[in-house]
Amino acid sequence: MKRHGMKGQPSSHGVSKTHRKMGATGGGGDPGRIWPGKKMPGRMGGTKVTTLNLKVYRINHHYNVLFVKGCVPGAINSIIRVSDAKRLAHKDCPFPTNFEDTFKLSEETYWEYLQPIHSELYLNN
């Protein structure tokens, strides 16, 4: 019922134990079959959703947090997969997308025009 937005059958007037059932599925003698694409019960959801070209503004390596501008698909506290853009909006990426293993990471990495978040600013308030 939720999958196709059907309302079901009435709760009275001779209906017994079939309130959430499908009802009639097709004609009797002619065509004698069910048409392809008929809305029937089945699995719902669980599809893979991809959002393209979101900007990563800040990476906090200490807490493993990404600051992303835009909508991220999925539920709260779900696992997401982040990868480089395959269709680039511009050729020169202003933010490093990959670090070598020998390079020591700082606690936070961010674009130059963004100001770093300092804990002293929040402790004084």
Summary, kept brief:
The protein is mostly loops and 125 residues long. It has one helix at residues 119-123, and strands at 55-60, 65-69, 108-110.
List the helices and strands and how they pair.
Blueprint: E1 55-60, E2 65-69, E3 108-110, H1 119-123
Antiparallel strand pairs: 1-2, 1-3
Provide structural commentary.
There is one protein chain. Helix content is 4%, strand content 11%. With 125 residues, it is mostly loops. It has a domain at 49-83 and 94-125. A three-stranded antiparallel β-sheet has the order 2-1-3, with no helix packed on it. Strand 1 (55-60) and strand 2 (65-69) form a beta hairpin. The chain is elongated, with a radius of gyration of 27 Å. Pfam families: Ribosomal_L3 (PF00297). One of its GO terms (cellular component) is mitochondrial large ribosomal subunit.
Low-confidence stretches: none
> Helix and strand succession?
EEEH
Rg over CA atoms: 27 Å
- From the N-terminal CA to the C-terminal CA, the straight-line distance is 52 Å
Shape: elongated
The major pleated sheet works out as: 3 strands, antiparallel
- Helix count? 1
| Beta-strand segment tally | 3
**Percentage of helical residues?**
under 10%
Strand order of the largest sheet: 2-1-3
